[in-house]
Amino acid sequence: MKLSTKGKYGLYAMFYLAQRAGNGPQPLKSVAEIGVPEDYLEQLLGNLRRAGLVTTVRGAQGGYQLAKEPCSITVGDIIDATEGPLSISECLSDEGCCHRSGQCKTRRVWEYLSNSINDLLQSISLQDMLEQEQFGNTKES
Amino acid sequence: MKLSTKGKYGLYAMFYLAQRAGNGPQPLKSVAEIGVPEDYLEQLLGNLRRAGLVTTVRGAQGGYQLAKEPCSITVGDIIDATEGPLSISECLSDEGCCHRSGQCKTRRVWEYLSNSINDLLQSISLQDMLEQEQFGNTKES
DNA sequence: CGCAATGTTGACAAGAATAGTCGGGTATGA
DNA sequence: TCATACCCGACTATTCTTGTCAACATTGCG
Q1: B7, exposed or middle or buried, with CB in 10 Å at 0-12, 13-18, 19+?
Q2: What is the mean pLDDT of residues B48-53?
């Protein structure tokens, strides 16, 4: 279980924009400084736009900027937008899955995990990242 | 972000064995009743064996059985064994990753998420599943 | 007006990972 | 010694990931 570069790059990009919120639109070329190929990043920003997380200004001096306050955008929103809804097992989306119905107690596990992880992702906002407060503590060594 | 069928099938198989713990070794053919191709399942059970989660008896009347009590085997153990260690972002395993070091506050997010998810997975045992107690509550509707 | 800067869209493709499949072993109980 | 099992490594079709590319649409500015 791992997330692809899309989610990672998406978060990079959004964090970049969060750091520059209020400074006007940032062109793709600038955002690409985070170390992602422009052509690829473009697609990701397209997804983020369609998800309503960034707005764009076309034409010269245009670019991308956050559509909302950093405190209203969560890591979960970003992952969703870039990776598509994370379904830990298609058993969740797909109702008629359990061939041998007996053992599908496992389904409850996926359900529980999925909900927990979503809550977790939703609990971290860009604002939290900007403030660098330890957004919760599990295993701070 | 989703886990592959390996983790899912692995959990199916382990739950199957948990339900039959104490009844002697279960041959591959029986375990495959969970709805997984035998040849594929064999690989997964091989991984589970190497991880020390199941033991095997070779020869006639042989088969697979849990290596430990259901309460000492967690969903996390099973996912690890079948999918390999889940690294949400290679930024974690790979130290020298942050090209533009400035923005790698994102790293702390992966760290936090990774730890949280691992804790979560480790918190559910096969015993919990057998008992079907709601192993924690997030969003019980 | 016209050009340059910029976002928009969709097609394409190499490489890796997934999900099996297969064939030939080895061990063991009856 | 034979049938029942597990063990192991190679092979493959399909899908997903990670980009790349080309053509187009929109806007600011001189």
Answers
A1: buried
A2: 98
Does the pTM surpass 0.70? The reply is yes
Q: Where are the beta strands (DSSP E) in chain A?
A: 54-57, 63-66
A92-137, pLDDT tens digit by residue?
A: 554 444 544 444 678 889 889 999 999 999 999 999 999 976 665 5
Residue B76, Ramachandran bin (φ over 0: left; ψ between -120 and 50: alpha; else beta): alpha
**Does residue A6 lie within 7 Å of nucleic acid chain D, judged by its CB?**
yes
Pick the residue from chain B with its C-alpha nearest to A7.
B1
Closest CA of chain B from A117, distance in Å? 7
| Residue B122 contacts residue A116 (beta carbons within 8 Å) | no
Chain C: nucleotides below 7 Å from protein CB are 4-11, 17-23, 26-30
DSSP-based helix, strand, coil % in chain A, nearest 5: 55, 10, 40
Are B36 and B9 in contact, with CB atoms under 8 Å apart?
yes
Q: Could you give the CA distance from residue A87 to residue A95 in angstroms, rounded to a whole number?
A: 13
* Whether the predicted pLDDT of B102 surpasses 50: no
Residues A35 and A45: their CA atoms lie apart, in Å, by 14
Cα A93 to Cα A85: distance, rounded to the nearest angstrom: 10
Task: Supply B16's token pair.
Answer: 């199957």
CA B93, CA B86: separation in Å to the nearest integer? Answer: 10
Cα A11 to chain center, whole Å? 6
What does the DSSP 8-state code read for residue A75?
Answer: H
